[in-house]
Structure formats: structure tokens, C-alpha cells
Amino acid sequence: MRLDGRIAAVTGAELPLARGLALALGKAGAAVALFGDVQALASVVRELESADVRAAAIDASWDSREAADEALVVAAESVGQVDVLVHASVPEIAFEHCDFVDVDDERFETIWEGSLRGTMFLLQAAYPYLRDRSGSVILVVPTIAMSGAARLVTYTVVEEAQRVLIKAVARQWGPDGITLNCLAVAPEQVPIGIESTSVSLAPPALGGRGEPEHDLGPVAVFLASDAAAFVTGATIGADGGIWMAP
Length: 246
Known about the structure:
Radius of gyration: 17 Å
CATH architecture: 3-Layer(aba) Sandwich
Strand content: 15-25%
Strand order of the largest sheet: 3-2-1-4-5-6-7
Helix content: 40-55%
Largest sheet: 7 strands, parallel
Oligomer: single chain
């Protein structure tokens, strides 16, 4: 599957997971805009450009609708109008372990409101571009969104809420030809210190968590391609066979 002519925007590529997805999308033919801290993303841009991928790092935040709008405008000016949005970024505090009884208003507000508002603002800002180009959205979540995880209650709750958000928006934007799906990955793919075996009855069926670019990347490429034009509102498990519940 090729993504020639597509323009992908990826958040969270400072970390190996989204970096690998960005590389896979770029090598499949898409130009790539990386949203986040430009300095932290510089090495990813160089890696993409070394593979003859048109790429740009864009200093962006999504803590307001205005900031998200500006990020999409700059992306359009830098690499083109976005038609694939891959959202893998969450506030760093979400990765911190904390006993549930110690979750205070500030922590809950930052993780819950910060994550959901950020996703909402990004989707709203991207909508005109996605609508015009029958685009796609891929929200990256760990499988602990379905299983839960001790001492990561707020994080798992917000990730599950984002899955519901994607389903609801998929129903509304379906007539516009926009697809929205979740890519569920092994817990080891995010820096939370959780092993697969702690949230599963058995080890991964395929023997491991997978490598972001070569194992998970092709799934993202599929979801961004015309081949997945009739797939929406789904959570696609790419965790090597950890979470097998429907």
C-alpha cells in the first residue's frame, strides 16, 4: 500500500512509538508534519529526510483551539494540507504511577482535561482539511485502555474515553468520507513501566511487543490508505496478541 500524495501529521514523535509510525508513513510515500517541540523532533526530521521524505517539525500545542488551528495552517504551508492525522501524544504526567486515593484535582485536570481537550481541538482544527480530502484519523492507545492498570487509573480512564470519542466522531463524520480509528499497542510501547504479562493472562501470542516502524507502522499505513476506506470507529489491536477480547 502506498500513500503517495498524502500529507500526514503526527503528534508524540519525540518518543519511539510515534517516531516509528512517522517513518513508516513517510517511507510509504506520505509527506510528514511532526507536531510538538521542534528541537526534540529535529532528529526525526533528519531521519525522514535521509529517506527522501518531505518532512517538517512544527512547534505546536493543542491546549487551545487557536493553537491547534495554527498548527494545521503551518503544516499546510510547510508540507501541504493534512489528510492523515496520527495522534499519539499525551501529557507526560499521565505516565507517572500514582495510587488512586492520591489523585488530586490538579493531576486529574491535567491528564483528563488536557488529553481530551487536546484531542478535541486537534480533530476540530483538522476537520476542514480531512473533509476536503476524505482523510483519516488514527488515535494511538495502549491496550491497557481496555484492561486497566494499577496505579495508572487516570491514564487508562482517559484513553478509554478517547476510544469512545473516536467512535462518536466517526459516526458524525462518516458522510464526509472521513475515517477515524484507534491503533491499540502493547503497554511496553509507552513509557509507563507496565509489562504485557501484568495485564494479560498469557504472554504475547507472537512473542513480543513489536517494533514501531516495521510491525506497527504497516498497520498505520493501512488505516491511512484507500484500502481502509470502509473501516471506521474500530480499535485495531497491534500488540502481538496480548489483548484478545472483542
